[in-house]
Amino acid sequence: MAGKRRAEMMQETREKLIGAARKAFAEKGYAGASMDDLTAAVGLTRGALYHNFGDKRGLLAAVVNTIDGEMAECARRAALKAADPWEGLLAEGVAYIEMALDPEVQRIVLLDGPAVLGDPSQWPSQNACLAFTIEAVEGLIADGVMKPVDAEAAARLLNGAALNAALWIAASEAPEAVLAKAVEAFRCLAAGFLARPR
Amino acid sequence: MAGKRRAEMMQETREKLIGAARKAFAEKGYAGASMDDLTAAVGLTRGALYHNFGDKRGLLAAVVNTIDGEMAECARRAALKAADPWEGLLAEGVAYIEMALDPEVQRIVLLDGPAVLGDPSQWPSQNACLAFTIEAVEGLIADGVMKPVDAEAAARLLNGAALNAALWIAASEAPEAVLAKAVEAFRCLAAGFLARPR
DNA sequence: TCCTTTTACATACGTAGCGTATGCATATTG
DNA sequence: CAATATGCATACGCTACGTATGTAAAAGGA
């Protein structure tokens, strides 16, 4: 298939670089990942990198964007499977906790991402996860299920709690046991937003 | 005052380096801070640095340790001023949110710290803030004020929520307004842990 | 008091890795 | 079929980390 168009070729190299970066950043961390090694792993050089992404940060941003999208998709699926909207919100939080157990997510999105790119809410991806959570919260407030607090504030606190729990679990020696405790506490905590206790 | 003992001198250079590092890390970020510049700013060279702290990470760890201690002290004071233990826990969370508005705390402890040193709970300082919160939670559970959830899980979720709120506030354009929203939502959320609604 | 040893820090060096400037080959345009 | 633009490689300089080595002063012993 030598008959590929120029744009297709470029798209392909971008994907190759993002894939390699995902691995390298996850394994070595952002600072520890060498651009020379990373590009060579897919048969390219740093030339391709700087042409396509500007600099090292640009590549990280692209990787974060990709993973963030996958996470939002995963959270959405978890929420849709739930019995009602409130359970959906909880399922979303739990899904978030579970996703954050993935070393790739942890290292790239939760640790290096914020440190290198700044606050997640300022990312171009606008943190798809958060956006989805805000939507859910707004619906629940409108339906009177949740107390009328600021939707963004509620979403951020919930996501923040889940995120921190995930870091804790991942660093612990008995992830499964800790996960159970964290999920229980999370459900309990979230209930504080309920207009009427269940 | 040339009559200083050796140990005192060393303690002094350690403090000078930590002070300079605090400034440099806060202003330029961990990766962007040059050890040459940083040490020269207090009339030393990298020799002193590597002798006292091993490497760049070691210096960051020392700085984080210092700030973490100050934060715990601040949280403790806030909690003691409250009317009762439950309000104390809330005050602690709010204090945590407010402290995280300090750019120095944000950049060093919340962003670069976890990225470079790993999960905060594994730090030698053992995250003084968290330890104090856990203590408070255990007391509240014993007194039947809070539901009998896992104390560490509850403390981590609360701190996580507060931390994330702080990052949000700091990045926002109207910190004061956002702070109010966040604090309200935080109080509401925390109420989920109450055995009996108030 | 004088000699020895340790220690706290400075100086010098090697090296990795980022960003940029330049070159080249292929694809697109007229 | 020329002319231009583009995607990527090659080459270079510079910054900054970590280490190896040097040195002067303090601590300790006789």
Walk me through the structure:
2 copies of one chain form a homodimer. With 198 residues, the first copy, chain A, is an all-alpha fold. Chain A is 75% helix and 0% strand. Chain A has 9 helices and no strands. Chain A is elongated. The N and C termini of chain A lie far apart (61 Å). At the A-B interface, helix 1, helix 6, helix 8 and helix 9 of A face helix 6, helix 8 and helix 9 of B. Chain A binds a DNA duplex (30 and 30 nucleotides) through residues 5-6, 9-10, 13, 34-36, 44-52, 55-56.
CATH homologous superfamily grouping of the largest domain in chain A = Tetracycline Repressor, domain 2
Question: What order do the helices and strands of chain A follow?
Answer: HHHHHHHHH
Overall structural class of chain A, as computed from helix and strand content, comes to mainly alpha
Proportion of residues in extended strands of chain A: under 5%
CATH class of the largest domain in chain A: Mainly Alpha
Oligomeric state of shown chains: homodimer
What is the overall shape of chain A?
Answer: elongated
Instruction: Kindly report the average pLDDT value of chain A.
Output: 92
Stretches of chain A where pLDDT falls below 50 for ≥5 residues? Answer: none
CATH architecture of the largest domain in chain A: Orthogonal Bundle
User: How far do the termini of chain A sit from each other?
Assistant: 61 Å
Distinct helical segment count of chain A: 9
Q: Greatest chain-chain interface?
A: A-B, 47 and 47 residues
- Main sheet summary of chain A: none
Q: Say what the CATH topology of the largest domain in chain A is.
A: Tetracycline Repressor, domain 2
- Estimate the helix proportion of chain A, in percent: over 70%
Radius of gyration of chain A: 19 Å
The number of distinct structural domains of chain A comes to 2
Total beta-strand segments of chain A: 0
